[in-house]
Amino acid sequence: MAADIMYTIHFYVLFVLSTLRCSSSFIGNGENYRRNLSLELNPGLNSLLTPLPPGVGLLHVRALGKNNTLHYLLCSQGAPALLLVHTNSTSSKVKVDWPAFLVQNTTGSLKLTPESSVLYSNALVFTRLWEYDDVNDTAVPEHLPPSSFFQPYELQNFTWDDLNKTLDPMAHTALLCGRGASESFSNGSLCLKFSAFDVEGRDQGWPSLLHNANSSQLRVVLDGVVPRSNRSRFSLELQVVGGTQAMSRVDVLQSIDDEYTPSIFKVSQWVSSPVNSTSPVLGYAQWKPVAYRRPSPLFEDATPCRHSTPVPVAQLPPSGLVRAYFGGERQTTGLNMTFSITGDPFYNTTNYLSWTVLVGLGSPPVDSFSPLVLVIMAVGLGTPMLIILLGGVCVCVRKNRPQPQVYEPIN
Amino acid sequence: MAEERQKLLDEEGGISSSDPRNESGPVKPMSALCDPRQLLHRIFVLLFMCFLGFGSYFCYDNPAALQTQVIQISETKQCVVFGVLSALTRNWLIRTSIGHEAQHIHVHAALCLVLLAQRGALFPGGLPARQGLWNQVIVAVGALLDLFWLMEIGRFVFGIGGESLAVAQNTYAVNWFKGKELNLVFGLQLSMARLGSTVNMNIMGSVYNRVADLVGLTGHTTLGVSLMIAGATCIFSLVCALVLGYLDKRAERILNKEQGGTGEVIKLTDVKDFPFPLWLIFIICVGYYVAIFPFIGLGQVFFIEKFNFSPAEARAINSIVYIISAPASPVLGFMVDRIGKNVIWVLCAVVTTLIAHMMLAFTFWNPWIAMSLLGLSYSLLACALWPMVAFVVPEHQLGTAYGFMQSIQNLGLALISMAAGSILDNKGYLFLEVFFSACVCLALIAVVMLYFVDCLRGGDLNLSASARAKLLKCSNSDSE
């Protein structure tokens, strides 16, 4: 009997421990590899020989893995672009022919050597910022007449700040801020906050996207821009230039877990994968369909955002980096991110909008439950079962014990 | 000789057959409707009890139905309104002390208190503000004069009155129906309360809009007038209370009940003498209800965001719990009456609720299923749990026990409502659902412990209906 009880307790304890261990590995320690990050600004530039025009900068982040390297290149010449190149050697380098690069009409002025080691390359370009007058508060710009749209802000014509001042080598981040020529940007700016990661983790501020060593994050912040009408809403145009495969579709996945982005239960992934859907995903841009209206947002500062279906674009985006690296005929796809939905406050309530996108290699990271949730469920469900076991045992023991006689026989 | 013996026998038989307790005169034959011992009369009393609850809950939920309008005139944030109103209306200390007064003799004292306060409405500015109709008037006046603090005072006073009314109602129910149809009666009371809430939710909005059309502007005036109209239901419940008071007095006179003469004193310190199973019942009550009411309060946006419902659909699914509980409570109460074994039914209800919450948290399955399960288990728990208090506690402590139970339930609801709001703001809906599941797990732990404690102590909480009837008959014959 005692042996039975001990066996049951032993089994239960083992079960709980193994669940916790499985869950902790499920949390994502499986992808626990690191990369060594190094940042450099304007690689190979001799500034005396070729002086840089103001507002142009090229940031190169080298993420060194065991036997491969991931190169990120962020450039502010033309439309701001983030280029991702994956090579299978640990000694690949970036070579820039600066005079040709600055002229912006030569393909091959930016190369990765050895060229044969390049496995995958992909560039995300921010081309235009659309502003429209949402008279009926529908937040569906596709259904509005062209007269509701203001002249879009062409990001290739923005003047960008010096990357050198905003570079943070320790945190592996950089802030690229720019403003247009018009008066709307007199006190405001469009900023791209770039972060590279060497290990798996999660950002602090919302939307707290889960990142791993194969990904980097771009946060687009529209701050202080004067809207051109009282009912203005914004829409951001993105274009992607692919290597071999175009990023042709956006998958919207449902997720149970909204711990890190309260009330958002979806994840959108713009993936490049071969037409055959069983092949693995080569590269992605992942985001949660939410934008925030304040720098330190509260629950009510979240505003949903939508994307349009990706469509092929006839020519390359107007980015110096893309023209220098890709050149020629490459597949370009573009989509529009529209912020806010019907009923939400307009941009002029807070004059702030931020949206975050994760760009990376391979399959997009998958969110999982936090340890706290798992522990609560384990304890909450386990304790009653334990009590049932113990109680059942006590009742059985009590029943099996011979009942003492109440009345003693006289003789 | 034989005739004398026969006459003596007849006299003896006559003395024992005629009601020895009716000293006021010979027994009149009464119609079934008027005889307190007959089922039909009890049903008649039940009718008034139900409508008493209807009026009270109708007025109670008014600020919730007119939430947006209240927020507009008060300019406070949603969670503050939610939390402040809940916290202020649930003054547990006051309710406990009134609870211990609401014994079956002193239930009249509570009712008289309510009636006195309501009569005070006829003397404007004279008598101090008390409960019932007067507090609804306070709230309405506060809205008319655009004084939010006056509305809050009115709600506070309503809390005093409304909840003591609930305690008195519970004790009344046990008084009239113990050992007979107690589960069914609790079920019906729950139905009527929910019906009052639902009717309120559905029509107050249109009442407000009609008044706005008449008066010509929205704002505090319209709110005040709407609340005054709602106050009419308080008059209705006042009338029911008067009738109930009269019927109870009459029954006491006819049956000449002796319960008052047990000689046991009623004290507030009875609380420390409550048996351990009763504390477990309190924990079940708190753990369960904090996972239902705050969830329904915050549920509409959850369904819109997670399951992509439209606002109208989300409102519908949110109210399905109450809509199901209205017809289901009497049916389930009747079933529990016939079958007995209350603890097993409570266990079923808690497990079903846990399953429903986990379904909503961890899956995308159709939420109508989970919400229907929630409605059924909510009804089942109300029918099976509240009568158990009557089995565990001696009769002179019953009012105190119910008062205490309502107290800590409402204290728990107030605290957890505020906690739920802040959890949602910081951690999202999944964590909130996990939190509610944890509360239900706490109730589950308490139920399981209650079952085993009762089993091991040889208690009688989990008896089947026939066994309990036998027990009652034995104890009745013992006392004679």
TrEMBL record, chain A:
Compartments reported by the entry: Lysosome membrane
Annotated signal peptide: 1-25
Membrane topology annotation: Single-pass type I membrane protein
Keyword Iron among UniProt keywords: no
GO CC annotation: lysosomal membrane
Domain of life: Eukaryota
Pfam families given in the database record: NCU-G1
Record bears the keyword Lyase: no
Keywords per UniProt: Glycoprotein, Lysosome, Membrane, Signal, Transmembrane, Transmembrane helix
Transmembrane residue ranges: 372-397
InterPro entries, alphabetized: NCU-G1
Oligomer and partners: Interacts (via lumenal domain) with lysosomal protein MFSD1; the interaction starts while both proteins are still in the endoplasmic reticulum and is required for stabilization of MFSD1 in lysosomes but has no direct effect on its targeting to lysosomes or transporter activity.
Family as reported in the entry's similarity comment: Belongs to the GLMP family.
Function, in words: Required to protect lysosomal transporter MFSD1 from lysosomal proteolysis and for MFSD1 lysosomal localization.
Record protein name field: Glycosylated lysosomal membrane protein
Automatic annotation (TrEMBL), chain B:
SUPFAM superfamilies documented for this protein: MFS general substrate transporter
Pfam families with a match to the protein in the record: MFS_1
Keyword Metal-binding carried by entry: no
Listed Gene3D superfamilies: MFS general substrate transporter like domains (1.20.1250.20)
Catalytic activity field: L-alanyl-L-lysine(out) = L-alanyl-L-lysine(in); L-alpha-aminoacyl-L-histidine(out) = L-alpha-aminoacyl-L-histidine(in); L-lysyl-L-lysine(out) = L-lysyl-L-lysine(in); L-lysyl-glycine(out) = L-lysyl-glycine(in)
Main localization of the protein described in the UniProt heading: membrane
Transmembrane parts of this sequence: 39-58, 133-151, 223-247, 276-296, 316-336, 343-362, 368-392, 404-424, 430-453
Keywords in alphabetical order: Lysosome, Membrane, Transmembrane, Transmembrane helix, Transport
InterPro entries listed in its UniProt record: MFS (IPR011701), MFS_trans_sf (IPR036259), MFSD1 (IPR052187)
Protein role: Lysosomal dipeptide uniporter that selectively exports lysine, arginine or histidine-containing dipeptides with a net positive charge from the lysosome lumen into the cytosol. Could play a role in a specific type of protein O-glycosylation indirectly regulating macrophages migration and tissue invasion. Also essential for liver homeostasis.
UniProt biased composition (Basic and acidic residues): 1-10
Classification via CDD domains: MFS_MFSD1
Family note: Belongs to the major facilitator superfamily.
GO CC terms of this entry: lysosomal membrane
Region (Disordered): 1-28
Official protein name in the record: Lysosomal dipeptide transporter MFSD1
